[in-house]
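Quick one - first record:
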Amino acid sequence: MNTNTRRLMLAAALLIALAAGFGLARLTGGQDAETSHAAHSDDDGHASHGDDQAQESHADHGAEDGHDEKGDHDDHGDEAAEGEEGLVALTQQQIEASGIQVVALGRGGGSETRLSGRVESAIGARASVAASVGGRVERVIVAPGTPVRAGQPLAVIVSGEAATMRAGAEAARAEAEAARLVYQRDQALVTQGVVARQELEASRARSLAADAAARAAAAQVAAAGSPNAGGRVTISSPVPGVVGAVQVTPGGFVAAGDLVANVADPAQTELVFSAPPALAAQIAPDARIEVTGANGSFSAVVIGAAADVREQGGMAIIRARPESGPLPPAGSPVSGVVVAEAKDDTLTVPADAVQTVEGRSVVFVAGDDGFRATPVLAGRRAGSRIEILNGLSGDERVAATNAFLLKAELAKGEAEHGH
């Protein structure tokens, strides 16, 4: 083999060797790079994994902390909610501004009784004017509805009996005057010794008797209406008011005691109710009656209760007067509700104090921090008060007037808490 050929073969071998080395190195470098990259990736992945674990650990810890904090907060909130349940916190200034009235509990239950009654003229403000003597009605001066004054004439009666009374009174007065003159003359004669003292004493007795007879005759005439010499008697009204009914007509005849007219003062009226005798015994003066009439409802105060001898069924009457304002006209029908108090220690509160919250009867008990809704067992209602059978001890003070404002505020607070 010549020299040139050997050189060419050496060059080719060198080129193959270089090519093989370059590929191996490249291959080795690529693997190393990949290995290095993988290692780096593993390192990064390990680090990331560690970071993730750290983050997860931190997140778990934070979650646990957050859960605990939230749980603690919720627990505190639940405890606060439980501690504040049913409480309406108000200051004294807010209580006064809202018009809420705080009252103590009362004692003594009671029962309601409905009564029927009417408006009547008050005692002393009505009169049934009757004829004092029998006679003929000469003139009727008034008619129904006529207003009259006390002493104003209603009718004129001509009576022979009255004329006789008048004449008898005048005769008695004359006899008394004659007896007095005799007694005076005997007094003068006794001093002169003409008449004995015994005669003087007898004349004095006759004078006294005549005076007494004259006074009796004058009183009889006055009771008969003070007739004149012709026997005319004027029947007058003893009270001011309005004539109700006139029972006589001109030309008619009346006997002594017959009704001539009724007179009543419409400004002086009272309430009269029919009641069972047992109830009348339980009703004391100054008790309240809630009355319903033609003009609406109003309150009245009892001024008397007693058996009514006019009633055949043994009923009693209860008389009352309104606390304020005028009554309906006399004769108007009315109805009333009266409360008979019981002799016991049952707790009672004003009717406004009992409110219904979630289907339960509650009262708002006043405390230092406001009002707390306290469930109670309500009993009977008697007038403006309600019995409390259970739930209160009796020492509490409760909201009465405007207690519904506390109910509304409590419902508002529960709605906000639920939201």
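second record:
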Amino acid sequence: MALRYQDVMTTDLSPLLDVSEAWQKMGKRFGELKGDYEKNVQRALANGKWQGEAFAAHQDSSAATASEYAGAEKEALAVASLLRQAYTELTVLQKATKDLVAEAETKDFKVDSSGKATYVGFEKLSAQDRYALQHDPDYPTLAAQARQAAQEWTDTIARAVRAVDEADQGAKRALSRAATDPSAAVGALSGFNAHAEGDLMKAGAPEVAATKTDGWKTEGKITATGPALGFTVSDGPKSGKEGSAKAYADLFHVTAQGSATNGPLKLSGSADLYEGARASANYGFNEKGAVAKAEASVGQRAMAEGRAEYGQVGYYGRAEGFNGAEISLNAKATTEEFTVGGKAFAGKKTGITGGLEAAGIGIGATAEEWEGPGGEAWWGLKKDAETGAWKLGGKVGASPEAGAGVGLEITVDPHKLSKAADDVADAVGDAARSVKHTVSRWF
């Protein structure tokens, strides 16, 4: 039966060390018994004074007994080693799960007894601030983002629990194999395992048949909105909120996302189509920083992006198009963004972006073709609200009637970077154990 969230959070792993020490002492004692038996029984009776068929039969049985003592020593020491390694691995994974929960709680997410995260930050507001927030035009968006973030925490915690369960199942397989004599005939009495493997990674590996994949797994979603009209405005900075004004007239807005995975290989893509007119302005100070931003646009936009990832390495490409007019000024310095720039353009733009990502760090470049007058320049650092990745980049472009724009982007995804670091640590640990076992065999 698979481990549950509560099992991972409450289980005391220290008995594994106590049992490991007992098996270690048992293995050492079996080794001593083997030496005593060989010295005081086998060699003592093989001094040449006893001859005949009875002596020959005794030698055969005594050799089998000495072999069982040796097998018992090997099996007990292997089990002791497996228990120590299981304790180390399970302790690390259990702590990682508890640390995730603690981190979620510091960010105003409550995790229940099943491992489900719920955002409770709104509940910590005063009644006045909560009332103001609930009547804020952006509240539905903020609530949706909070629900999405809570689901991401739930999924991350679930993956951590699965990692503990997989390690537990591996330890179970390893201990079962160590205690089974592979040389025993079917139906016959089995003895101690003289070939017991003490390396948890090797002994706990799943059967080959169990690693067979079921092929590609796919998922995707499409959303469509419009036509829609709207206008919102706030009086100005108060209660820690920015002043804002927004007006929009959307003809349509369609987004699509999809992915296909097969083992470590993942293919994904997204598309976004929009036509309409928008204008917005934000200004003010709050606990996150300062914002001054104004923009307006009218026309059609289209974007399509594709990614191919294998483990920690991935490639991505993006194509974008715009037909219309746009103008913006931006200066933002907050805990999640530091950007400055501006643009003004009327006409058509087409652009492509390509890049490489490894271990959560990516670098890409953009090239655009402009048909129409305008100019653009910006530079900054900002955090993606959906993925949590940080992007550092910039872009410049100019055109009297026909011109071009170029840009650079560097991304750092903390989650992928942390996963890569964990993989490296695991690899180093595996290599260290391999060297240790090799040296042990030499001596």
